[in-house]
Design goal:
Length: 585
């Protein structure tokens, strides 16, 4: 081959190479990578918790969040715990890479992940863990977050033998240590908090500096809104979205349909209104959220009578109430308090079927057989059995209160309805300024949080129950613990300190054409928050149908990176082709 032919071959080969690179670039340019480069559209996801709560979640730091307003979820975006539950409910390492406990359950050793940095670039070390646990323990009950949320009282001492190891010694074995301590307490940077004397009032932007997958950009208390940006250097890999926004909306269904929001939790009847919106995907799960009737046991002599409480239970058709209030989006309550879908559920407890005739007979036997001209029962002194029924002013609680009023009237008990916002109801109940109250709140699948607080939240101080509660919390053998928890449920059902009327299901809808991957964590996050906002959703979810999975080293394999690899392979192949062609005789 002469020099002219060789030159023509080179030109054709180079032209062929350029064409291949252009084609490969076109093929993969539409695939969105995990990083937002110049010219790429920002990946913004806007979500709402309006159906779940209308409360402000508080400033998203471990000591200023509002436990009743979704505040823990917001805080979890910025801060990491030592361990965290995944989609299956199993705990994986976050700040801890691995961990083990001593045979007696008193000493827990955590080996920390290396190379983790705080949002401001400072390195994370074991000293931050020691600082956090000591700091929270030494400032109990001085913030909006009480000691029942961050249980540090169980810890005798916390030590850091080196920068990557933490040893926690407990005062006694604590069965739920992983889910209720290591998996709940957000670790705080010592260099930010060490000089803060009043954490309840500290809400400077650096108070939100954590190691989590998102960085707080804006918080508006008045509008109850939050804006987070992706942590580019998150150790599990960069989130698949660039910006996460939480807002409140007055009509979640309409906001979903118009695209104002991309995701929201919804009630069951709202789900029905989404028909025809094929791009909206709906998922559901158990919530452990209970609507229950609370009695003022300590202060009301009539309601302090167990037989009266049992009669009231028999007067309520809980299955009918579920249908009328939740329209099928939940199940009737269980007299043992634990929902039937919990692994701790004991079916062998006293049941209270709807039986108004039996309720009448029980009240007669209790000494309230006399009635006035309105059919209201009288006590031996001639006083009417009339109670104030306190409830939150939301639509479902309103409907529930009206139904309970009707059911109780049928057995000769009069109720005067009083509504208020949630914070007011919490305050009146906390002060003991009520007779009956409808209480809707989340609970958990952990007996230590689900059952042990019952005496405190009902005024029912049963010594046998309290003894069992103390025993089960230190029993690490699960079979033995299950037996103790079974006995606790028997006592609850036999004494009726509260009436669990119904448990609602959880539902959420989201624009699956934009983002997909939401799930309900089986036992919740933070020891019992059952919202769909496990932060791992935003690490392992998919944007526009593209799934970005994190490799062990923290790098991502994306469609763009595949395109680059293919282009590189084409380039190398073409280069070899040119070299070989130019060398042919």
């Amino acid at each position: 081959m002469n020099s002219g032919d060789q030159m023509k071959l080179k030109e054709k080969s180079i032209s062929f190479l350029i064409s291949l690179i252009i084609i490969s670039s076109m093929l993969f340019s539409t695939a969105a990578g995990s990083d937002t480069g110049d010219g790429q559209q920002e990946k913004v996801l806007t979500i709402s918790m309006s159906t779940f709560t209308t409360l402000d979640g508080g400033f998203p730091s471990p000591l200023t969040l509002n436990p009743r307003g979704g505040g823990y979820v917001m805080t979890s975006y910025c801060f990491d715990t030592l361990v965290w539950p995944d989609e299956t409910g199993n705990f994986i390492g976050l700040l801890a890479d691995s961990w083990e406990s001593s045979d007696d359950g008193l000493v827990w050793t955590f080996h920390l992940r290396e190379g983790v940095k705080w949002h401001d670039g400072e390195p994370f070390t074991s000293n931050d863990v020691v600082f956090t646990l000591d700091y929270i323990k030494n400032k109990p009950l001085v913030t909006a977050v009480d000691a029942s949320w961050y249980n540090t009282a169980i810890m005798e001492r916390v030590e850091a033998p080196d920068d990557s190891t933490v040893v926690i010694t407990l005062t006694q074995p604590y069965a739920p240590f992983i889910p209720l301590v290591a998996g709940v307490i957000p670790i705080m940077p010592e260099h930010v908090w060490k000089d803060v004397q009043d954490p309840a009032k500290y809400s400077n932007m650096d108070a939100a500096i954590g190691t989590g997958p998102f960085i707080l950009e804006d918080y508006d208390m008045n509008h109850k809104s939050y804006k987070f940006s992706a942590n580019e250097d998150y150790f599990l890999g960069r989130p698949v979205i660039d910006t996460l926004i939480h807002i409140q909306t007055s009509d979640a269904v309409l906001s979903l349909k118009t695209g104002e929001i991309d995701e929201s939790n919804l009630a069951f009847d709202q789900i029905q209104a989404l028909n025809g919106s094929d791009y909206l995907k709906v998922i559901s799960g158990p919530s452990y959220s209970v609507y229950r009737l609370r009695f003022n046991i300590p202060s009301n002599d009539i309601l302090n009578n167990t037989e009266v409480r049992k009669a009231i239970y028999h007067s309520l058709d809980c299955k009918d109430i579920v249908n009328r209030v939740l329209h099928g989006g939940g199940i009737a309550g269980n007299s043992g308090y634990v929902p039937p879908y919990s692994k701790w559920y004991n079916p062998n407890v006293t049941q209270y079927e709807y039986d108004p005739e039996k309720a009448d007979m029980m009240l007669d036997k209790a000494g309230y057989q006399q009635r006035d001209k309105d059919g209201v029962r009288l006590d031996p002194e001639g006083n009417r059995l009339e109670f104030q029924l306190l409830y939150c002013s939301d639509q479902k609680s309103q409907r529930l209160a009206e139904l309970i009023q009707i059911y109780l009237k049928n057995i000769g008990i009069s109720t005067v309805l009083k509504s208020a916002d949630m914070q007011t109801v919490d305050g009146l109940v906390g002060e003991g300024n009520f007779d009956l109250a409808i209480y809707m709140h989340g609970t958990t699948n952990y007996p230590g949080r689900m059952l042990n607080p019952l005496p405190a939240i009902t005024g029912w101080n049963n010594t046998e129950f309290i003894s069992l509660a103390k025993e089960q919390i230190v029993t690490t053998d699960e079979d033995e613990r299950k037996e103790l928890v079974n006995r606790m449920q028997v006592l609850i059902a036999d004494n009726v300190p509260t009436i669990p009327i119904m448990y609602k299901n959880l539902y959420c809808a989201f624009n699956q054409d934009k983002f997909d991957g939401y799930f309900y964590t089986p036992d919740g996050i933070g020891g019992g928050s059952y919202m769909e906002h496990n932060k791992l959703v935003y690490i392992y979810g998919s944007w526009n149908g593209e799934t970005l999975r994190t490799t062990e080293g923290g790098n991502r394999v994306t469609a763009n990176s595949i395109g680059i690899l293919v282009s590189l392979a084409i380039f190398v192949s073409a280069f070899i082709f040119i070299r070989r062609s130019s060398r042919r005789p």
